[in-house]
User: Fold these one by one.
Assistant:
Number 1:
Amino acid sequence: MPKSRAAARSLVERDRGLVWHPYAALNGPAPYEVTGASGVRLHLRAEDGTRFEAIDGMSSWWSAIHGYRNPVLDEALRKQIDQFSHVMFGGLTHEPAVRLAEQLVNLAPEPLAHVFFADSGSVSVEVALKLAVQYQASAGRPRRQQFLALRGGYHGDTVGAMSVCDPIDGMHSAFPNLIPAQLFLQRPPKATLIDGRLVTDDVAVDSWVEAMEETILRHSAEIAGIIVEPILQGAGGMYVYAPRCLKALRRVATQHGILLIFDEIATGFGRTGKLFATEWAGIAPDVMCVGKALTGGYLTLAAMLCTAEVATIVGQSAPGVLLHGPTFMANPLACAVASASLGLLNGWESRVSRIGAALATALAPAASYSFVREVRVLGAVGVIELDSPVDVVAVTRAALERGVWLRPFRNLVYTMPPYVSSSQDITNIAEAIGGAIAQVHG
């Protein structure tokens, strides 16, 4: 198009029909233009020219836990740029990658001891799945090629990751001939946070555990690994489930020589009120994936961690190596800012606890709405579940008019605010959610 024509059109007009956005049509609802961001606030402009200053209730899809233009993270990037921005990781190493790996191993539950850096959360899941298959083959169990996952789970949009997402109610049912067939357990019984404990129906948990044991016994010769989002299923419905189910999975996986893989991409680094959600159950997986908040929302980076026992057996396989190697593996800029982001986690417990308490108080009135099915809070996660699909466009605009950016989905209006949000910010977020759903769905 002629330059003059491009200059005469708004950014949103130029965007529509040209750029795909996540799970949106090319000519779908108009996006909002970001004109700036600082602290916990986004500066936005709508297609009609209306400007908004909005608290980011999403932490940019759960990643920007320290807010925008954080001076510590900005400086980490500037310092690394002055040295080098990228080098291949094949045959080379560098300080940011090694330092970050050391930090991750120090933070992760024992006995996780080795790190593989990946481009994104989905890719880290792919690496974990490949690792499990290589592990089983090297251990003399080459028939073990399948995975056991949970209904309601979500692990990413790449092919292997899609295969372990919910096969019926998930977002990937359009690709039945592309995605490998896996095994699935029913979603575990839900849990409710009461006085700092996750409480559930013990009879329902007993029944679930029995069904799980029967499934694994029947398919143990085929299963390479069990993959779950511990405690909180994110994109599958912000669903909180019983820690005892994780303990049972740990016990049975060990019994049958199956790798237990925890996808902590959304739940890691304090989001659920524990540094890692696995701590709710007091256990550790054989393999763990982390991402999202890892870099504080600055750059895409994820990691897969595994135990020394797993790494040793994979190293004894015929190839002798883990068969994966992304071009931008351990990108120095991403590793440098991730290292700085982990350094900012000091004191996260009190911040997340304060956010959770404020959300519980401020979201509670919405439970009385006739169209609200449930209000739930876990750590720095607040969820209002409606009894029908949410009008995403209308609720988003109604919340913006109240000074808050939200991105609802399915029948859920939820928030995962940055950890640096003030108590007043959290109150504003909750009141905007309540006001928006009352305006649109009341």
Note: The mean pLDDT is 96.
Number 2:
Amino acid sequence: MPCYQIDGVTPVVHPFAYVHPTAVLIGDVHVGANCYVGPCASLRGDFGRIVMEAGSNLQDSCVVHAFPGRDAIVRRNGHVGHGAILHGCTIEEDAMVGMNSVIMDEAVIAARSIVGACAFVKAGFECEPASLIVGSPAKVLRQLSDKEVGWKQSGTREYQVLTERCLETIKECAPLTEIDESRPQLRVGSHSLKDR
């Protein structure tokens, strides 16, 4: 993975985390155990610290940065969807940020909450735990049910298993020119949209 030191500060990646080789880590970045960082993610710890706590994931093309002297934090089992931008915010434990959402400085997404896809969360936003947050600008639509929180937790577990799969089996290769008749199946779980 491209990893860069700045001002003598080097990123830290736990040996049981998976960071895709196309992701970029700069400066004061901490990636914890069982974390997944997807392809083309950018974690720029050149102004403020970036922390991914254990079991969290940051999917493809996400951008994480912070206002000077501030932190951007994804707490334990946090789940950040494809293309999201986190800027100097905190994603609390077991919360989820939907695809292409933007979470601004000093916003706090409370534990077990879900930010809907394409939401824009203004600076300084706060909410109660287990909130469903949608819109641009984003607002709390309602409280999540236990079933909805469980669905999110199931999806996060799939990414924790993906971390293990990547550490064990991912490798660069040349593509085949045709489908192999003995092609193996992917090892995927049972997480489903119908379980929401």
Note: Residues 3-143 form a domain with the UDP N-Acetylglucosamine Acyltransferase; domain 1 fold (CATH 2.160.10.10).
Number 3:
Amino acid sequence: MGHSVPPLSDKSLLKSQAYVNGEWVDAKSGKTFEVKDPSTHQLITTMPEMNREDTLAAISAAEAALPSFRQTTGRERARMLRKWFQLMTDNADDIAKLITWENGKPLADAKGEAAYAASFFEWFAEEAPRTYGDWIPASVKGNRVYTMKEPVGVCGLITPWNFPAAMITRKIGPALAAGCTVVAKSPGETPLTAAALAELAHRAGIPKGVVNFVTALGNTAEVGETLTSSPTVRKVSFTGSTGVGRLLMSQSAATLKKLSFELGGNAPFMVFDDADLDAAVAGAIASKFRSSGQTCVCANRIYVQEGIYDAFASAFVDKVKQFKVGGGYDAGVTHGPLIHGRAVAKVQAHVDDAVAQGAALLVGGQKLPDLGANFFAPTVLRDMRPDMQLAREETFGPVAGLFPFGTEADAVRAANAPEVGLAAYVFSRDVGRVQRVAEALDFGMVGVNTGLVSDPAAPFGGVKQSGFGREGSKYGIDEFQVVKMVTMGGMGGPLQGE
């Protein structure tokens, strides 16, 4: 089934090459891979299938650019980021069209992402001049001790397809603000948004070699291993699955890199009897079904206290029945396709497993082949149990499983059971309960009476096997800096002439 694609206002933002050392380049091998529209399976364009040799060239470009770029002042870097932010804002509609084209999310969602992505450049433009050190009172008489924060060096950045713009800016923003140069591995499924950002970096006057984009789909593992094994790359920031995070961490051990990983989630969404039911339903809808459930912080397990379980399920299903699934550009569409066939198969497996073990299917539960191969109906299951696949694994699709619970302790115990701990959500009007539960949850982020926690001002990241390090916020730039201590001896004593 065809879906019309609105043309870009600025056609020069659609690129079919990678961006290295300030130039648009092909893979040295000449190989390419196809970028397809997940709604229609139609070819959009091809991109360079880069390998180790291409990646090493990008690392060399970043290494050559580092000495001069790290000497720029924070204010100079702030102006570069501010200019890049302004260009993203001016071209937000085209960026959104590219996101929808290659990722599939509805255009309204894509416009939200374009603005959110730009906000990280704005935020870190404001942080760049404010990387303060400390003056430390020394224990030794006559010594003076101070610290300064310096850029860690060349950074390798690896980002996923589910937020083709925001995951990139959330890493590049603080890296550049700190004075680092970067080699970014574009998501194989969604490299076009990254290429548009590279074009805007070029226009913003970011010096050559400071920002490099390497593209690969089949060679993704090779590119990743090149970044992790290179002694030149001093820092790797990765967003993706826990399994790949483990692999990258082991590969980085030989060179003892600084790492920050934002890995898998399995977010619990807890609704207590005293919650505002309408607000809880709206929050669960926003959290669970944003981008058709393909976000690392989307509600995966929805725990509802027994007193309002039936009422919540009924109201929740009513909202889901109002969704309109279709191509991301089509008028009125609220939810688009999944990214590829493997994602559809996983979602179907989770639904089938739950139903086979006694869960009740309230709405959805099936593929939508009339729309296209990657479409799956928004689904709600009730009477879920902790041994079902959906409870134990991140579904990453439009399936909401409702679990009943009795007490606060029951809910927290169930919420904390998985090995991951990224985001959790709590809905209650009891301020004491909110505080108790938020403190007891083993997660890096807790949303209270809201289903959306993302904000450039807020630190984003997890605990346990959801990774370490924080992105965004005042903490985000720390991940791209090292602290240098200077001790000056012989500084005390009386003034000369006294």
Note: The radius of gyration is 24 Å.
